[in-house]
Amino acid sequence: MPVQGNTIDFDLARVKLGQTCSQRRRNGKPNITLQDTRRELTQTLQTSLELERVLGMFYDALRELLYIDGLEYRHTGAASPILHGHYGIHRCSYRMSHAGDYLGELQLSRQTRFDEAELVSIEGLLATLLFPLRNALLYREALTCALNDALTGAGNRLALNQNLERDIRSSKRSGQPLSLLVLDVDHFKSVNDNYGHAYGDEALKAVVDCVTATLRNVDGLYRLGGEEFVVLLNNTDADACNLVAERIRQSIEQLQFQIDGQPLPMTASLGHATLRPTDDARSLLDRADQRMYAAKRNGRNQVVGEE
Ligand SMILES: Nc1nc2c(ncn2[C@@H]2O[C@H](COP(=O)(O)OP(=O)(O)OP(=O)(O)O)[C@@H](O)[C@H]2O)c(=O)[nH]1
User: Which Pfam family, an example, fits this chain (predicted)?
Assistant: First the structure.
């Protein structure tokens, strides 16, 4: 697939404010110049900090100026690329950076080759994207830090509070079931005591990876603190929640976590509860928590749920 590769360092870009490159709109509307588009876009891009929205506005403006079929944005920190439009045969790509900071990779594509004048226009417009893109990336990073546990990457207590309140409202409105499970790693103190805190941290990360692998993308995993976690399961009744809890219990039991090549068996105790009409976040969490403690009392490595 033909790709015209470019690296754009915004400090060095060949962008000149007085550029006169003008293109005709594809749909027969009057001529629009690069300067017009830059002026409008500079204002429009300031209206959002959402990465996807910023890129969408940039894509729309670019399409006013040039024929483009699709825009794809990738960043090493994001799991999946952002796509506006669709892919074409010919692509031109930009690796973007500013003052040494990596800002991601942008690829534009269409069915015909890009000529030199068009590439200059694209670069001219890319300059307007610099600060909005950098701000959107910083905003995303700040949100991630505010809502995720730094050690394991699971959601933190603040994220759980926010999402649990939202999911309870939505479940009560829609009538769809909502279940929640509390998971506590068994005898975790002995991991720290026998192998040290650093290995304990690795063991916690391994548990989180293991639980994440058994969940659907829509399910949320949160760290309540220490070695205690919560899984929020939307559209899930008590029977389905019990199946999920049992699957998690088994996968932790089979984890085969190793310390210095030596296997370290791990297990967890789980309690779950399903939303009742009279429940609020506190009572739902408390019920699941009490059942988790019942699982501990019953001998650990087991699930206790609705009667
Ligand atoms: N490595 C590590 N340990 C932690 C972290 N947070 C809490 N802990 C440890 O987790 C252990 C929890 O111990 P306990 O609450 O006594 O429970 P337990 O040993 O898991 O025993 P049961 O829950 O009764 O099965 C303590 O030793 C805490 O120091 C952490 O972020 N990293």
Answer: GGDEF
Say if residue 171 is in the same domain as residue 92: no
What is the pTM (predicted TM-score) of this model?
0.73
Kindly report the number of other CB atoms within 10 A of residue 51's CB atom.
20
**Alpha carbon of 188 to ligand 1 centroid (Å):** 5
152 domain residue, yes or no: no
Query: How many domains are contained in the chain?
Result: 2
The residue behind tokens 């959402």 is 50
Nearest ligand 1 atom to alpha carbon 199: 1
Q: Answer for the pair 171, 178: CB distance below 8 angstroms, yes or no.
A: yes
At 76, the pLDDT band (50, 70, 90 cuts) reads: confident
Token pair 């090493």 is found at: 76
Do 143 and 192 sit in the same domain of this protein? no
User: Do 126 and 163 sit in the same domain of this protein?
Assistant: no
Is 293 found in the same domain as 169? yes
CB atoms near residue 195 (< 10 Å)? 16
* Residue to mutate (ligand 1; options 186, 191, 194, 227; most atoms within 8 A of CB): 227
pLDDT of residue 18 exceeding 50, the answer is no
Q: How far apart are CA 274 and CA 265, in angstroms?
A: 30
**CA–centroid distance, residue 184 to ligand 1 (Å):** 9
- For 57, the domain range is 3-147
Q: Which helix (H) or strand (E) holds 82?
A: strand 82-85
Final residue belonging to a domain, choices 147, 173, 199:
147
Which residues line the pocket of ligand 1, CB cutoff 6 A?
151, 184-189, 192, 197, 200-201, 204, 226-227, 296, 300
Instruction: Return the SS3 of 165.
Output: helix
